[in-house]
Predict the 3D structure of the following.
Amino acid sequence: MTVSWYRKWRPKTFSDVIGQDYIISNLRHSIEKGRIGHAYLFTGPRGVGKTTTARLLAKSVNCLDGKKQNNFDPCGKCALCKSFESESMVDVIEIDAASNRGIDDVRALRETIAFSPTTGKYKIYIIDEVHMLTKEAFNALLKTLEEPPSHVILILATTEVQKVPETILSRCQRFDFRPITKELLKQHIQKISKDEKIELSDEGAGLIAEYSYGSGRDAISLLQQLSVDEGIIDVEKVKVMLGILTENEIDSILNYAIDGKADEGLKVISDSISSGIDAELLAKMVLRVLSKSIKGNYDSDWSKQTQIDHKISISESWAWALRQMKSHPEPFLVLAAAFLETQTVISNKNGKDNGKIIVQTEQAHVLTPVVLQAEDTINEDKKDDLHTLSAVSWKPNDGEKELWQKLIEAAKPFNHSLSTLLQDSSLLSFTSGNPGTVNIGVNFPFHKNIIMDIKNRRVLEDLLKKITGDTFMLKCSLIASKDESTDQSHDDDLAKAAAEVFTE
Ligand SMILES: [Zn+2]
């Protein structure tokens, strides 16, 4: 039977744990000072060492020897360390809350907790994925956390700390485990490949580290899978194994977006998914090149032609897609939505209206044309242009709808994409006063970010002042029915658009 490398290479001492230096030194320190807590909460993404560290803590507090010499690392030689390593240590109880989530499971735990440890000084309970417990089970656990016997250490581990009740959190010492850096992961798998006598190219190691997204477990598993084939593990092999696209392919998607070629761009995405590329991975890859491009170390046509703030808006669309994908039955449609959103951002900023735009503001039934230069971003010069919107053109009797239309029109010359975004939004509420408030309803969190961006907000507030003669404060709310988790109608529209593209 093949031993999983992840198990084989699991850290045996605190010193072996990678990328969690702060937590490890904190734990060593509390062991040294005899200030070991009775309840810990280890949170962080999967594969970063939460359970491993919990086990090491269990091993260290019970180790009979060697602590002082090795900075409180378990010695690995005493009877208790040995029984721990052979997994026959009776005083360490691991519970997977995903499959033992009910009140009876917690009750069973509470019945045994009172008994003294059999061999070691402490009895350690490690409850993995603790957020899976039912409400009743949490309540029962809380009672234990309120008065833990002095010989007991409870270590709760979770990837989703937001699902753990506050009452539980407040009784635990919390440690947040971080994703392991690419460089550390790379070094780690290079060390393992050396010991396992497999050839791994430097670039191959880099790619494995990169696509493990901070998870040591994923990096080691990938390496083990790749080691099955003979020969050196190079970039090509890693790419095939990961089912990833090359950066050229990602570039072609973004270049199609910039050229306004929706059908071609969507076809690349569709073909990639048909050929077995994971949709989530595709979104991550787009984000990766966007991130490189924003940092200034990426060379491609779309990157050169796109301004940094638009790259940020685009990356918000793809990040949104990534989140949506987890609950969406048809990931392609989510990618299509992100692609079309990209195209919207790019085409608007590239200014289909590069010429002069005439904004008509109405005053006392007299049309007063105001000529403004259309540009894609807001700058200080344009703030002066705001003064050219000279006259109050709206009165309360004109109604909210009219105000909204005027705002959309007036915003166009300053920021075309902002105006487009407003068209996709709605005026939720409006109160007069000094200042009054205008609440804009948007469909997506990243739309809210764009509108509430300080520059955009100021322009909109200034425009409102010009249009109405009054001062307004801008608010922006995510429309509940269009909330990410519940509403798919925007997706449906985009899905329709995407479907049309593929209808022969
Ligand atoms: Zn020991």
The beta strands are 39-43, 92-96, 123-128, 152-158, 173-176, 356-363, 366-373, 426-431, 436-442, 472-478. The CA atoms of residues 97 and 130 lie 5 Å apart. The domain at 5-176 is CATH 3.40.50.300 (Rossmann fold).
